[in-house]
Amino acid sequence: MDAAFTAEQEEIRRTLRELLLKRCGPDEVKAAVRTQAGWDGALWRQLAQQLGLPGLALPAAYGGVGCGPTELVLACEETGRVLLPSPLLAGAVLAAPLIADLGTPAQRNALLPGIAGGGLTAALAVPGAALASALGLVNSDTSSGSWAGGGRAGGIQARRTSDGWRLYGQADQVLDGHSAGLLLVAAHAGGYARSRTLLFLVREGAAGLARTRQTALDETRPQARLELRDVSAELLGADEDEGSGAVAAALTRLGATAGAALAAEAVGAADGAFARTVEYVGAREQFGRPIGSFQAVKHRLADLYVQIQAARSAAYYAAWAAGEPDGGPAVAGLALAQALEALRAVAGEAVQLHGGIGFTWEHEAHLYFKRAASDELLFGPVHGLRARAAERAGLFDEGKVAV
């Protein structure tokens, strides 16, 4: 493993950081989340047209840049640093890789260029709060599709008709589900007897589809409730008989890259909150001297710095492991757990060290605190991530002793 980044990778990071620092300050973030889409459309078009951000990890044959997980991780670290509200996570990180992995050639040619160009936004819809389970980050039983309803009532059900597939059910907490032009819906087919989980494509404006933007703890991650009442859908891929096995394998592969990207995003957010805190304690004076000169404050900041650097190393390693066979999912889960813990610690200390102003809605410290709490609810819990990684490594196998 070569731990050094290439000149191209460093340029991606530098260019994106410079643009976001100019266009995505705290005031711009607060204004963007209150728009109907929940993000700045003009900034998203600039990121797509000038930097190719949504197609960074997509093949050049489909209009993408043709980079890999490492470049995507570096980009997510920079978007996390400023808490950028955008369709990057829902579309480029979660939905597009599944279309590239499972879609037919016609589906790939029809959909991926639009996603890579930023004109088509996409979202992955799974029932309830089961996203981390669907990606295999916290659940050991992904192949059965129990997270998608298990063939019983609940979740989203699919039935085959003479003119195609119809979906009915409900999904909550769908990232960018209220505004995405394309929905990638995980649904249960075959009833209890032939239980299997399949992925379906649902277009914006489909008859019977109701989308409601939810009030979310973290406004920078818009979420929606989807209600599907006999909605016409297109099967992703050509072979429905592959069923849960192919879908589960694709979701597990996605979990490796998505986990690394989410870890890097959390590291970027932690680093952003840390930098703001260091700047503040260097300027805020008490007893005639900056509070950052007090030994107790120095010790707290030093502990946070160590946590951030450890989480960053884990995220970078997870990006490398995502391209390796069998090692990616376990590493991604551990990296994500480390990053979520670091973000929670930094965000909490940022509020405390900013003093009275850190508790106000006007200050940006609460944005980082909400991101930390929301991410652990959406993609954790941390102990679940670590338990699943340990299970993958065989630490709980009978007869094995961990040393």
UniProtKB/TrEMBL annotation:
Its cofactor is FAD. Keywords: FAD, Flavoprotein, Oxidoreductase. Pfam families: Acyl-CoA_dh_1, Acyl-CoA_dh_N. InterPro entries: Acyl-CoA_Oxase/DH_mid-dom_sf, AcylCo_DH-like_C, AcylCo_DH/oxidase_C, AcylCoA_DH/ox_N, AcylCoA_DH/ox_N_sf, AcylCoA_DH/oxidase_NM_dom_sf. Residues 260-392 form the Acyl-CoA dehydrogenase/oxidase C-terminal domain. It comes from the Bacteria. Residues 6-118 form the Acyl-CoA dehydrogenase/oxidase N-terminal domain. Its EC number is 1.-.-.-. Belongs to the acyl-CoA dehydrogenase family. This is Acyl-CoA dehydrogenase family protein.
